[in-house]
User: What shape does this take?
Amino acid sequence: MPDAPLIGPYSPDGILAWEADGPRTARQFLSDVSRLADSLPDRPAVLNLLSSRYEFLVGFAAALLRGQLTLLPQSRALQTLRRIAGDYRESYCLTNRDEPVEGIESVALQRHGSLAGWPKRIPQIPLDQVAAVAFTSGSTGQPMPNKKTWGALTAVAWATGARLGLKASAPASVVATVPHQHMFGLEASVMLPIMHGWVMHAGRPLFPADIRDALADVEGARILVTTPLHLRACVTEGLRVPPVGLILSATAPLPRSLAQEAERHFQTEVHEIFGFAEAGSVAERRTVAGDHWRLLDGVRLVRDQQDQQDLQGRMAWKAQASYLPAAIRVPDRIVVEADGRFIVHGREADQVNIAGHRVSLGDLNQKLLAIDGVQDGVFFLPDEGAEFVTRLIACVVAPGKTVEDIQQALRTRIDPVFLPRPLLLVPRLPRNETGKLPREALLKLAEPHGQGEG
Assistant: This one.
């Protein structure tokens, strides 16, 4: 059975991670993993809730060595954790000290102990071993589980590094604002650095000043793994930051205007990753260079023969790769060029039809965010009611602006049938850890206002 090493090309005393109290070497990491693996309960699955990215990795690796499945919840809400634990019987939680989860068996990670010797051979993990289960965000409905093999995780890490022109031999450090329990966070902030022998910053900076400080902690070529939400905050605040070699963004569409501002602010290139929980990362682009995405090495697109063209002649497609158990349908409507590049036209669930007019909610959101003074905003459809004509709702963060200001600006940008009724000015949007907006949270936000005029 083919396998792959647990970590990439580190020397025993090479720095693998940077914790709040200093560096952790590869030797320390393997010692911590071995010690934890020996103490884990004999169970089939674990909910890894460790907040430090390094400690999460220790728990993830220890579970791999014990043949245990790591469950990656899309939320830390108690209701979500209990639901997952109920679906995966005999699972347990791996938590920080003094943070047990009520109603679920919890094991607290112990602090680091003595160093073990460097092994003659780095632990090897079978490529077909299911390493993790990632759940969809719930932004379009009920979160769904997706199994990830060790082969899939390692293949994506190597393909991403190759596409970005990053070399394992060159010193680099990865700082990330995305949670490691998220699929993009696991791939880009954990697997990418450890497969290439780079330094992984263990923290998760959220605010611009925290991001600046985290970048200052590390050396070498700095790679910032982040989201459009965090990029916008950094650009708006205008903080001076240490040199950044590359920015990698995902979890939401990145407006080209924001990418241009971020490239000027950070003096670097901004690249985006296109992917979905079912398949992981599948393509990349430099946002300022155009709309086309390029598939990662090893991924190809095939037409879904069960699907018919939509009104614009767009077909449904599936993603294929040797590490995927089967071809997986791409949840977005895309147009594929002869050379394999493609353009994304939004999620199928993102398409709305009002009075015979079609539009993508993503396109409406981009136009909303382009309005001067709008800091954040989103369009969404309410649940179906008795009305004959569906009305869109928009929630907008725009201090100093009125509803009429925003509506007037929208009238010059979108078809009148898509003007939101109501348009709600709110202090902030209920985004989750990755910047996504769960539908339930949006409906709750709009609930007090009913569906009357804004």
